[in-house]
Each structure stands twice: as C-alpha cells, then as structure tokens.
Design goal:
Blueprint: E1 14-15, E2 33-44, E3 51-60, E4 64-65, E5 68-75, E6 80-83, E7 89-98, E8 103-114, E9 130-131, H1 138-150, H2 156-170, E10 172-174, H3 176-183, H4 192-196, E11 199-200, E12 205-207, H5 208-221, E13 226-233, E14 239-240, E15 246-253, E16 256-261, E17 266-267, E18 274-280, E19 296-299, E20 302-303
Parallel strand pairs: 2-14, 10-12
Antiparallel strand pairs: 1-9, 2-8, 2-20, 3-7, 3-19, 4-5, 5-8, 6-7, 11-12, 13-15, 13-18, 15-16, 16-17
Helix pairs in contact: 2-5
Length: about 300
C-alpha cells in the first residue's frame, strides 16, 4: 500500500522569557456567582476475572482559574486528591478484591464560585507560552505555511476562526485503527508519531488527537499563546455529564485567559455555565475518539 508522508513534528519547545514565577498565581479574586453541581460516574469490572486491586483516576473541576474557583468537594467513597502545577485536580479511588462484573456508581458534588467576567492574572505569573517549531516534508510544509500566511497580521480571534475552520471543514477524521491501517504505527515510544498522533495535510486526514495537536501547533506558530482545556457546559442544569465534555482552546490576551469554542467557531462570552475540568498545558498525549475520554482513566475498572 502506498503511504503518504505523515506530518512528523520536530519539536523545539522553548519557554519564552518573562518574569520568573513567584509562588502561586495571583488573581483578582472576583467570583460573584455561587453554584452547586453534581456528577455521577458508573464504573464496572469488565475484565472477566476477579481483581485483587483496581483504580479509577478522575479529573474534577480545576481548583482556580480566571473564570472559576472550587470551594468544596464531596465524594461518597474514600479517595485521595492530587494536584499539579497548572491547577488540575485528580481524584484517585482504589479498589480491592473486585468480583467479576462488579459495578457501582460514584457520586460527586462540587461547590463552585464563578466569574461573570474574567479575572486578571498577573503578568509575572504566566509565561508567554510555548513556541513550537515544525520540520515537515516539503509538500506538507508548503500547505502548513500557506495556512499560516492566510492569518498573518490578523488578530487572535480571526486566527482561531480561520485555522480551526480550515482543519475542521477540510480534514477527514480517522479512528486509531483506520489511521494505523493507512499509515502504519511506530513501535518506538519516543517517536514523533507516537507523541503527536497521525496527521497528513496532503491527504487531508488525521486522528482527532493529531488534528487537535496540529491546530495547537499552528496557533503557536502564529504567535497565539494557546492551550487546550477540557470542560463541560452546564446548560442551565446542576447535573454535569462526562459525555457532554468538550475541548476548548484557551488563549491568552491582555493578561487574561479567554475561551474559544472550536466547534462553534467563536469566542465564549458567557463563563458562568462553563466548568473547566482539565488544563492540558502542551500536546495531548492520549489517543481519544471523544473528549470525555480525557476526563478519566481506569486501571482494571472501566466507565460504563
């Protein structure tokens, strides 16, 4: 089978210079709206055998961001909570001696304070983002540069709209097995293909992960400080469902992190019903076919 070139990213990731971080990020701390939310995660031992040990890892709302602050967490099971440097919170629930086909529901509730307008982050606490340089085969590089040229000199919103629409409307999404069948798969864990995902601008095909990482790389190459976040829109209800999870682009402008809805092709203006569950500071490393799969990871137990 004839194989097209894959976009293999040669990443030179540089942290742009700014004032060094000084402790925890500082915010204006204006969160004027309080809401309570609930969510339920149903899990099952679907391995077909009894498990001595199993584990569920679950992202819950980011502790503090420009648009939100979580003030209380309640879970109806024993758990451990870990946090990372960008504000993500990960719940760890351990199981022992799980019977075959064991199934249960985990109930979580969050007390949230939300901002009707974005809080300002001090300049010294947030760098200018990551710069990604791409070394591409000539035919791929020509298409990549052509897209960047179309947005040259435009403001951030126009860049987001043009680049996201171009990839969304002109590329065919492949699931992982289709992509491997057409392009093969590297067995080297350190290979660029394994890190980035499969993308071909020439063939106009990509996995969802590959397309997402390509958009992020294009934005950064266009001097937009951007990253992916995973969130859920409450849409007027207090019951949040993992299946409603979406990937939004978070981009930095004038000291604030703004949200852009790639599917709608527009900036998110109303933040009081948008809950951020996960900040992805760099490339998406996990293969996925739906954003909700980036919310949890089961070891021995799976989401039902």
């Amino acid at each position: 089978m004839k194989k097209r070139y894959l976009i293999l990213f040669s990443l030179s990731i540089l942290q742009a210079c700014s004032e060094p971080p000084t402790g925890e990020p500082n915010y204006t701390d204006e969160y004027t709206i309080s809401k309570n939310y609930q969510t339920v995660l149903s899990v099952k031992n679907s391995t077909g055998r009894e498990l001595k040990r199993a584990r569920m890892l679950l992202y819950i709302p980011v502790e503090k961001a420009s648009s939100q602050k979580m003030t209380k967490l309640t879970i109806d099971k024993p758990y451990k909570l870990s946090k990372d440097g960008v504000g993500n919170q990960l719940v760890n629930i351990d199981y022992e001696n799980l019977a075959v086909d064991y199934e249960e529901s985990i109930h979580l509730s969050f007390e949230m304070q939300l901002a009707s307008d974005l809080n300002v982050l001090q300049e010294g606490d947030v760098g200018n983002g990551l710069i990604t340089r791409l070394d591409l085969p000539e035919d791929e590089k020509a298409l990549f540069d052509k897209l960047l040229k179309e947005v040259q000199g435009q403001d951030n919103i126009n860049k987001l709209q043009v680049l996201s629409a171009s990839l969304k409307n002109n590329m065919t999404l492949l699931d992982r097995q289709e992509a491997i069948h057409q392009y093969g798969e590297s067995n080297n864990e350190a290979s660029l293909q394994r890190k980035i995902g499969i993308v071909s601008l020439v063939d106009k095909k990509a996995t969802l992960r590959g397309q997402s990482n390509l958009l992020l790389a294009m934005l950064r190459a266009s001097d937009v400080t951007a990253r992916w976040v995973l969130g859920i829109s409450s849409q007027g209800t207090t019951q949040l469902k993992q299946a409603d999870a979406q990937l939004w682009i978070q981009y930095r402008e004038q000291g604030r992190w703004h949200l852009f809805d790639v599917n709608a092709g527009q900036e998110i203006k109303e933040y009081t019903d948008k809950i951020i569950f996960r900040i992805i500071p760099d490339l998406i490393e996990q293969e996925f076919t739906a954003p909700e799969q980036l919310l949890y990871e089961g070891v021995g137990v799976n989401k039902v």
